[in-house]
Design brief:
- It is globular and about 45 Å long.
- The chain is of the alpha+beta class.
- Helix 1 packs across helix 2.
- It has five helices and nine strands.
- The protein has one domain (3-156): 7,8-Dihydro-6-hydroxymethylpterin-pyrophosphokinase HPPK (Alpha-Beta Plaits, 2-Layer Sandwich), CATH 3.30.70.
């Protein structure tokens, strides 16, 4: 059966950060029905976009079996799963923006961002793939170097150049 790569970024800056990340991966494994195929090392990075506690960050890769699902609908279902896991691990509140429309960031026990789903490129109000800010974020790009495959690098040379 053909498989599609799914890449996610993980971060935590509250509580036992490593346990939060490992619990998120366990919940993703369960929710996706497949064990992750690669997990980066976790590293500490300063908060990005706000003055907060340092984050522990990493990335995780899955090889998702293809069963004829619509890629955009599946990606949105993964987003819903990620948000559900965030809530179950203690994340509260919804995304906020300031008066100028800029995103407002806060401390959080867990953050799960979808980076890639196969070669899918999409932009909806809920989800943009590939993740539009990843190239600006060392805390995503450095761990991603450990979990990205040659196939992914070839699909998105503008991300990995």
């Amino acid at each position: 059966m053909e498989r599609t790569q799914l890449h996610l970024a993980l971060g935590s800056n509250q509580g036992d950060r490593e346990t939060n990340l490992l619990r998120a991966v366990e919940a993703l494994d369960e929710g996706l029905g497949v064990r992750h195929s690669a997990l980066s090392a976790f590293r500490t990075y300063p908060a990005w976009g706000f003055d907060g506690a340092a984050f522990l960050n990493g990335t995780v890769r899955y090889e998702i079996p293809q069963a004829g699902q619509d890629p955009q609908l599946f990606a949105l279902a993964v987003l819903d799963l990620a948000k559900s896991i965030e809530r179950s691990l203690g994340r509260t509140g919804e995304a906020e923006t300031d008066a100028s429309g800029q995103r407002v960031y806060h401390d959080r026990p867990i953050d799960i961002d979808l980076l890639f789903y196969g070669s899918l490129r999409m932009a909806t109000p809920r989800l943009t793939l590939p993740h539009k800010l990843m190239k600006e974020r060392d805390f995503v790009m450095e761990p991603l170097q450990q979990t990205a495959t040659p196939w992914l690098r070839a699909q998105f040379p503008e991300i990995f150049d």
